[in-house]
Amino acid sequence: MVALFTGMRLGEVLALRWSRINLDGKVLNVREALEQTRAHGIRFKPPKSRAGRRDITLPDVLIDVLRDHRKAVLELRMQLGAGRLPEDALLFATIDGGPLSPTAVSTAWADLAGRIGIPDVTFHALRHTHASQLIHEGVDIVTISKRLGHAKPDITLRVYAHLFHKDDGKAAAAINAALKR
Question: Fewer CB atoms inside 10 Å of the end CB: C or N, the chain?
Fold first, then answer.
């Protein structure tokens, strides 16, 4: 749900810390990403680009889900005798608080998608779905680009141009409205 309602990349979701989420302010801060390579294993790194360092406003539905998730995490920690969450606790972590493997999460997602009959829906498709929903609702391209962490709006346009309506009726309506003033 975090990926679907924020458009974050998998590595950004897995690097997200509770200290970077303000549930009352309804915003999260993307400040790092998780990557997994053969050479370095699992490690934290800066976002993909300078624009990847961003603040994302959260919809109410996600706030509710995150509150429930935090409560479940805290209850599990109490049952295990692990105590409070550390200041830098990850939102999604192993039982001992370490980072999840991006490769393992991608594999688990693919397995789940295959079992429920949507094998072509990758984790990254959640990001595309998010952008598509915003375009459909008429959100401007600059806002979408910033939300996705693209360096420039033209990157967003190149990827999603096919989703914009081909009808220029809004342009004609704008001209009509301007002439009536």
Answer: C
Contact 127, 3 (CB under 8 A): yes
Q: Exposure string (b/e) for 133-152, b if CB count within 10 Å is 16 or more?
A: ebbeeeeebeebbbbbbbee
The neighbour count for residue 36, using CB atoms within 10 Å, is: 18
* Least trusted range by pLDDT, from 20-24, 81-85, 146-150: 81-85
- Give the whole-angstrom CA distance, residue 122 versus residue 125: 5
In this structure, which long-range contacts are made by residues 167-170, counting pairs with CB atoms below 8 Å and at least 24 apart in sequence? none
Q: At how many degrees (to 10) do helices 124-136 and 153-160 cross? A: 90
Longest dimension (CA), the chain: 70
Tell me how far apart the alpha carbons of residues 95 and 102 are, in angstroms, rounded to a whole number: 16
